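F.,

This is the one I mentioned.
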């Protein structure tokens, strides 16, 4: 396995959209990642929701050098260790606890802990963490909620994820406290099942042009 390369700058600034990927078939991992990168979306979050997720991260890290592959749905210190060992270059969690936060801080790679309330944001700021995932974005208040946080907590920056579409993404990306959004609309199930990587690349290109 190639050594984990450092992410230059912030994960939030790599691209306007971070594809949130659920890999069911390990044979899809490399061509899917290549299509996303070719479309202009180098940061790829592979969620730890399937038995092949870690293998997919490892395959992308080794086989698609222009991809910045990360692990999503990280909910334990074991997830952190396994993901970094597989080659993940950033970590994303749906929420956080002190134990999980300590593990992510010690991992040596950038991370986006998940928040959905003002108190959770303030608690992370106390811990010196200013970049976060806002999840589930649409269910938790969407753009109106994030806009209301910008006044009292301008130092916090977010990657909203959860229910965001190509139509709603521009409104999020127009907010001062949003660096990027996470979504899966550029990976329609029928295109992935048919291995229509050209369609995935085209949708990724449209997403990359949102900002």
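My design for it:
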């Amino acid at each position: 396995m190639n050594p984990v390369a450092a992410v230059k700058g912030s994960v939030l600034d790599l691209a306007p959209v971070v594809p949130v990927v659920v890999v069911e078939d390990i044979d899809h991992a490399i061509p899917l990642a290549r299509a996303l990168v070719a479309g202009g979306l180098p940061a790829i979050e592979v969620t730890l929701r399937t038995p092949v997720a870690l293998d997919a991260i490892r395959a992308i890290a080794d086989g698609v050098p222009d991809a910045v592959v990360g692990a999503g749905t990280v909910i334990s210190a074991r997830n952190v260790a396994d993901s970094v060992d597989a080659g993940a270059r950033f970590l994303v969690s749906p929420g956080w606890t002190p134990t999980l936060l300590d593990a992510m801080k010690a991992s040596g790679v950038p991370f986006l802990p998940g928040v959905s309330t003002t108190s959770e944001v303030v608690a992370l700021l106390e811990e010196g963490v200013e970049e976060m995932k806002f999840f589930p974005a649409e269910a938790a208040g969407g753009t109106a909620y994030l806009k209301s946080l910008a006044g009292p907590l301008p130092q916090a920056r977010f990657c909203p994820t959860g229910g965001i579409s190509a139509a709603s993404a521009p409104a999020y990306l127009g907010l001062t406290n949003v660096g990027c959004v996470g979504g899966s609309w550029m990976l329609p199930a029928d295109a992935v099942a048919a291995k229509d990587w050209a369609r995935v690349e085209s949708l990724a290109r449209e997403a990359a042009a949102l900002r």
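The radius of gyration is 16 Å.

Talk soon.
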